[in-house]
Amino acid sequence: DYADYRPRLRSLKAQGTHFVRWGAPEADDSGLTVGCDNRAGGRIATEHLLDGGYRRIAFIGRCDDGYPEFRARYRGYCDALAARGIKFERDLQVDALTLESSGVSAAEQLLASGTAFDALFCASDLIAIGAMQALKDRELALPQDVAVVGFDNIPAAAQASPPLTTVQQNARLAGEVLVDTLIARID
């Protein structure tokens, strides 16, 4: 939760600490931030599902100020739906933190609501892996009954059954940019 980190970042800046962090750049952010284009990633993930013929795509992930990366992915999801003339439905968004257990709970909540959906775009791979488990526990076939897309391409995504379709961030490039940015800041 970024709300927990903002005071720490302001403290680091106030004491003159040189730092750079990976995350979602924000206008009021203290210090330098390097991050991916989460909104474009959310749009791409949703377009992938739309291109597969899915139309009732749920989004699982928090969309508030505490989770700006998830919020940007959600906005990309909404952008993709709007571009295809699909109206956003509030019932197709369920909050979840980036934990497998949160993905399980969110998918169970969505299933219990009775809201029809044919695909899930999960704000992280851990959420997606948990959601997949909840769907399988209900004996739903993946991706035949429900398609699932995650975000991050963590190693566990390839180990999921079936393997998770996911948006990959360029971790190597991110690391290089973070280090180069920190060195430039120190210099």
Q: Which structural category do the helix and sheet elements fall into?
A: alpha/beta
According to DSSP, the number of beta strands is 7
Spatial sequence of strands, sheet with the most strands: 4-3-5-6-7
The total count of helices amounts to: 7
Distance between the termini: 31 Å
What average pLDDT do the residues reach? 92
The main pleated sheet reads as: 5 strands, parallel
Write down the overall geometry: elongated
- Rg over C-alpha atoms, rounded to the nearest angstrom: 18 Å
Sheet-strand content, in percent, reads 5-15%
Low-confidence stretches: none
H/E topology pattern: HEEHEHEHEHEHEH
Helix content class: 40-55%
Report on this model:
- This protein has helices at 2-14, 38-51, 68-83, 100-113, 125-137, 155-159, 171-186; strands spanning 20-22, 32-34, 57-60, 93-94, 119-122, 147-152, 165-168.
- With 187 residues, it is an alpha/beta fold.
- Helix 4 (100-113) crosses helix 5.
- The mean pLDDT is 92.
Descriptive keywords:
single chain, 187 residues, alpha/beta, 5-stranded parallel beta sheet, two-stranded parallel sheet, 7 helices, 49% helix
Provide a short characterization of the protein structure.
The protein has 187 residues and is of the alpha/beta class.
SSE blueprint and pairings:
Layout (H helix, E strand, L loop, with lengths): L1 H13 L5 E3 L9 E3 L3 H14 L5 E4 L7 H16 L9 E2 L5 H14 L5 E4 L2 H13 L9 E6 L2 H5 L5 E4 L2 H16 L1
Parallel strand pairs: 1-2, 3-4, 3-5, 5-6, 6-7
